[in-house]
Design goal:
Arc Repressor Mutant, subunit A; mainly alpha; single chain; 7 helices
């Protein structure tokens, strides 16, 4: 079910299914690049800090970091679970299995190491980095979301709705250039 944009209009001649796939790829690349980089050892520090608050399983740790950074940092399972295993090997955490999930908690040694952590929690610097970097991250993300909405209107909208969408995008483009002209 492939449609093309109206002749001479935005993206004339492009297959919308291909454009939709390109938008999804762009979104995926964007999400991987923006806000996911943290300093070396930050996962370890974050895990220790969270487990100092309460026992958790790996997915809870990932979700908690993501929530505390407002989405700026979401460590992968491929970084959290090996970190938990390393901390267990070092005797800093212990795991208790319940309902098919391992819940991790700090040992006495782990509590001592967590207490030695100085400075702000790693999620604070990640959230701060997002607010400082938001001028670089928010606009491309908004652009991707706009392109996705345009592709959806093109796929499912009536000819009149498509014309309205083109007018909205044209107006948005003019207004963006007007922002730059304000200097």
């Amino acid at each position: 079910m492939s449609q093309s944009f109206p002749a001479g209009g935005f993206g004339a001649g492009l297959n919308t299914d291909s454009m939709w796939q390109a938008m999804e790829q762009l979104k995926t690349v964007f999400e991987k690049r923006v806000g996911t980089r943290v300093g070396k050892g930050e996962v370890r520090t974050a895990v220790l800090a969270l487990l100092a608050e309460q026992p958790m399983h790996g997915y809870q740790i990932i979700r908690e970091i993501e929530e505390r950074t407002a989405g700026a940092w979401k460590p992968s399972a491929g970084s959290v679970y090996p970190t938990l295993q390393l901390l267990a090997d070092e005797g800093l955490v212990s795991a208790e299995e319940s309902n098919g999930r391992k819940t991790y908690s700090l040992t006495d040694s782990g509590r001592a190491e967590a207490a030695e952590l100085s400075g702000s929690a790693p999620w604070e610097s990640a959230a701060e980095g997002q607010s400082h970097g938001s001028k670089f991250a928010a606009l491309p993300k908004a652009g991707v979301e706009l392109a996705q909405a345009a592709a959806q209107v093109n796929r499912t909208g009536t000819p009149e709705q498509i014309q309205q969408a083109v007018a909205v995008i044209d107006e948005a483009r003019r207004r963006l250039y007007a922002i730059l002209a304000q200097d």
